[in-house]
Design goal:
The chain has 70 residues and is mainly α. Helix content is 67%, strand content 0%. α1 packs antiparallel against α2. The longest helix is centred in the middle third of the chain and has 27 residues. The chain is rod-shaped, with a radius of gyration of 21 Å.
Length: 70
């Protein structure tokens, strides 16, 4: 149940940390906002794909195990 919250929280923490890294006065140490946005969108799409692939497993039932001890 907490998988969705942790996934979204991870993307938010990634974006926030990337923005903190951008706040420097040294030349050449900045990170492009487009790169941060691209990685954030890719992460969200990957998370959504994993969640959509896992949804059918939530309603699946285990098949009965045949009794091989006989």
């Amino acid at each position: 149940p907490s998988f969705g919250i942790l996934g979204i929280g991870g993307v938010v923490a990634f974006v926030f940390g990337s923005i903190i890294l951008m706040e420097t006065d040294a030349p050449g140490y900045g990170i492009s906002p487009a790169l941060i946005g691209a990685f954030a969108i890719f992460s969200l799409l990957l998370f959504a794909l994993c969640a959509l692939c896992a949804l059918p497993a939530l309603g699946a039932t285990m098949p009965p195990v045949p009794n091989s001890a006989a």
